[in-house]
Amino acid sequence: MKPQTLACTLALCSGLGLSGLALANDLPFQPLPEGKLYKQEDRHYTPFDLVIGVDKNTYQTQTVAGQLKRVNYKLPSSYLPSHAVNNYKAQIEKLGGTILFECQEQACGDDLKLSKQIAPLSDIPKKTPALLTAKLPLAKKQLYLSVYGANWHKGAGLQLDIVEVIDEPLDLLATNQAYLTSEVTQTEFKDRGNKDTQGSKDHPMIARLPGAFIQKYQQQGYAQTLVFDGVEQGQHKLKTLEGKVTDIGYKLPRGYSEYEVDANYKAALEKLGFVRGYNCQGLACGKTDLIKRRINTLIHIGFDENQYYSLYRLDRPEGAVHAMVFITGFGSGLWSEIKVVEETKLVDDRVVIDLEGLKDKIAQQGHVALDGLLFKFDSDQMLPEAEEVITTLATYLKSHPKQRFYVVGHTDDQGKQGYNKGLSEQRAKAVVATLTQSQGIDKAQLSPMGVGEYVPVANNLNEAGRKRNRRVELVLRSDLQ
Q: What is the model's pLDDT at position 25?
């Protein structure tokens, strides 16, 4: 806001000029002739340092407290700062005031240091300063005054500070008795599970915090994953874990604190028998972006000082379970990640089907499950491990060019039926596309189909059964031989 506009707003004046007469009832003195109000600030109650002496550019002050009015005037260049200040001095003395300190030009010390001490509302004028401080007792109140004038090549300025002495008002606030007599109520968070990413779910060992939803999700039947169990000079000590990996990234309501989230995970996991191992907080964990880069966390948006990281371990006969908990956030966002690694034996006899086994299954049963034909989670993109299966399958198809087959995709029953059927069909089409485009198989030999969850070969009530149901099969057709 421009000074003229601000001045008019404060005094409710009209036009571009302001003599300051509108302030006569608010201040003990009328403005000097040709004085223009530049800025005014009021404080309900504050301490104020009055200059009462100067010694080698060091200012001695006396602290007074009360209601403070700060007024700054612009003056024409015809005014000497000392002349302006002396006019205030004459009026103060007429009213029976006591001069506490006064100085002019060099006697006031360094111009710049004096300006910093007074902190006028306009600090452009600094040259040839004059300063006066005074005490003015009146019939109904006592004032302390500071009058500071200075000039520059375009004019002069005058800063008037008035402290009306009052006791500190400590009765401004009223208490809320209804609140003070009520019990503590916990914040309730709305369920946001409808925002969960497609195909995701909580790990069966540990539920989510109220109000959380799954923003990112990864699950692999057997994989290697990285965690860290120490930080030295900014470098993370990495550790590889193997087993079934479930990695879940939650978006949390900002009503939680990072500490509260960490404490809740700790309590829940320890109830299950987990033992907390390495843990860190804030900058001791290293930089968030480095953690993301080094162990590929699902979450990474947050301030370094807000981080909480912990490793837990549960020993059990069928194999240990590891849990990594990572929490981070900033002013308006909060996330948590729990990565559960269940140690289990690697099933290494299902990756590749051999050519003879494929021939036998087709001859005996008319269909064969293409074990090892693996896809990325919730995707129709095949993993690199599927390449050998595709090669074996292409060799068989080329040796039986007159046979016709369905390539049938299947899923488990997790998720919506329509979605599962669509995904199974997309995967079947991906297999056919790879065989025809990369392996030179005749398109007429293969027909992709997707049946979703409707033809299980095992029980969907357990993970072992669901794994068997997530498959692609080659089915011999008798109608087109």
A: 56
